[in-house]
Design a protein that fits this description.
Layout (H helix, E strand, L loop, with lengths): L1 H52 L5 E4 L12 E10 L2 E11 L5 E8 L4 E9 L48 H21 L5
Antiparallel strand pairs: 1-2, 2-3, 3-4, 4-5
Length: 197
């Protein structure tokens, strides 16, 4: 009787092992397929965002050598020189770092330090207030979106919530975090173009 149970247990173990092996193989194949699709979607999203934040540009050229963030919690993920008809007009930077949780911004700037656009690619802040920074339907008292208010600002003036830009009421941490991301992104671009203070 005990040998019968032993045989059944071994059979069950073999069946479970086969199911596990097949499941792992299927998951690996799905991951292999979807990871390239996800990466392609990220690249397309970033390219579209570059055009939004630097609409004057006719092309973008990746730069490998640029000033890294001076804040260890913030990462400049990519840096592109923006060109119009072959001539450098500015740059676009993708920067990631802490907001209330974490955010990724695409920032465009002309060579003279004028911000041409800011767009959140990702923002995982709280749904109540922080996420309003990314919401295109949310307007500040000045009538602009949170990101829209930065267009035309001079990066050399800095990004201090409540002083150089309007913070989102009830979302001080997100506003301060966005200011820090902008400071690092524009600081890197200013140094690249030789216009750092």
């Amino acid at each position: 009787m005990s040998s019968k149970y032993s045989i059944e247990t071994v059979k069950l173990g073999i069946i479970l092992a086969l199911f596990a092996a097949v499941s792992c193989t299927i998951l690996a194949l799905v991951n292999n397929f979807t990871s390239s699709v996800i990466e392609k979607n990220k690249i397309e999203k970033a390219n579209a965002a570059m055009k939004v934040v630097m609409s004057e540009a006719t092309s973008f050229e990746a730069v490998k050598e640029f000033e890294a963030s001076t804040d260890s919690t913030i990462s400049i993920q990519s840096f592109y020189v923006a060109k119009k008809d072959g001539k450098e007009i500015g740059a676009v930077v993708q920067v990631n770092g802490p907001t209330y949780d974490r955010g990724t911004l695409m920032v465009g700037m002309l060579k003279d330090g004028t911000v041409t656009g800011v767009q959140f690619l990702e923002l995982s802040d709280s749904p109540g207030f922080g996420i309003k920074a990314k919401d295109p339907s949310f307007k500040l008292p000045n009538g602009k979106t949170f990101c829209g208010q930065f267009e035309g600002k001079n990066a050399k003036d800095g990004f201090i919530p409540g002083q150089t830009f309007d913070a989102i009421t009830g979302s001080t941490i997100t506003s301060r975090g966005t200011g820090n991301l902008l400071t690092q992104a524009t600081g890197s671009m200013l140094k690249y173009f030789g216009g750092a203070n």
